[in-house]
């Protein structure tokens, strides 16, 4: 029999999974080439070729018993060394293997971080709009998620409302930067003010930087961690390196003992051997990193400019690999109109703090983005 809390969690519909499944079903009916999915459930670019080639070689040459055998149980040391080297190179900081807590993507990192800093019944504050899966991640630890209301149209954290919600039950604040779905970065001053306030009140701050690798000019909070032991930063490799199925990420905190305690409680074999191998290879792939940054800078700017010119839409200047839109036509169901053209976009109606006027679209290749632009022009004409 299912535990009732778990049953309720499973009962929440996932718009993204439903859209993704609908796309797959339609593609099976009318052909993959005829369905255009901008809802961003899966990456639209391949992961670094070097990893695919390494896997091909391993599958062809390695002995299967060894290849599919057990790997070190607490996240491959090779992966942790690779992350430490990557951070040392990127930020000039003396990271070591022991400082890295490997996780199954950002999802695993959030769940671990919340468990590390709360006990059942504690309150976790986050700012709307926020990634809806924060609900189940927080509930799964027994803590309670409380939401600071959004401030449209800037969608920056509302400090006054935050201050009012800071009761003594709050032990953790969770912020996503850049934000999903808006793609916006919280202003530096606001983030630092929140970090200082958390520090003064002995509240842990978890920064979900799952998409930050897309923005090379934004170092995020990692360079500041040494001065902020109450801050946990998580990064994901699933987004930037297009490996969501492999599940890979990591969590950082300046307190080595806190990281060691977390590691002692981690379930064995959390990271699988292929994910760990991927991490070792892709973190060093400078050519892939540069090409992705260049594509997003050029194509992201072009796509944004074209969307901005479209009557009936408001678009925000997000910095991640997606853009956030509002359809300003009254009584018009943009998602349905596009579905009829076999174009899938992500409705943000289930994002707390938003409604059915808001959407998120993936930034893809110039040709694919043009197809979405053409479909939008048709349905908005
Ligand atoms: C803001 C945010 N955090 C975390 C995650 C989970 O990412 P991962 O696939 O790395 O677990 C997502 C996934 O979409 C996300 O949007």
Number of helices: 14
Helix-strand makeup class? alpha/beta
Q: Please indicate the percent range of residues in DSSP E strands (runs of 2 or more).
A: 5-15%
Bound molecules: pyridoxal-5'-phosphate
* Spatial separation of the terminal alpha carbons: 52 Å
Global outline: globular
Mean pLDDT, as a whole number? 91
Query: What integer value in Å does the Rg equal?
Result: 21 Å
H/E series, N to C?
HHEHHHEHEHEHEHEEEHHHEEHEEEH
Strand order of the largest sheet: 2-8-7-6-5-3-4
Major beta sheet, specifics? 7 strands, mixed
Number of strands: 13
Spans of at least 5 consecutive residues whose pLDDT stays below 50 are 5-12
> Helix fraction?
40-55%
Report on this model:
The chain is α/β, with parallel strands linked by helices. It has 14 helices and 13 strands. The chain binds pyridoxal-5'-phosphate (PLP).
What is the structure about, briefly put?
This protein has 381 residues and is of the alpha/beta class.
Strand and helix map with partners:
Blueprint: H1 4-11, H2 15-30, E1 36-37, H3 49-61, H4 64-67, H5 77-91, E2 101-103, H6 105-117, E3 123-127, H7 134-139, E4 144-148, H8 159-165, E5 170-176, H9 188-200, E6 204-208, E7 231-236, E8 249-252, H10 256-265, H11 273-282, H12 286-308, E9 313-316, E10 322-327, H13 334-339, E11 343-344, E12 346-347, E13 358-362, H14 366-380
Parallel strand pairs: 1-11, 3-4, 3-5, 5-6, 6-7
Antiparallel strand pairs: 2-8, 7-8, 9-10, 10-13, 12-13
Helix pairs in contact: 5-11, 12-14
Bound molecules: pyridoxal-5'-phosphate.
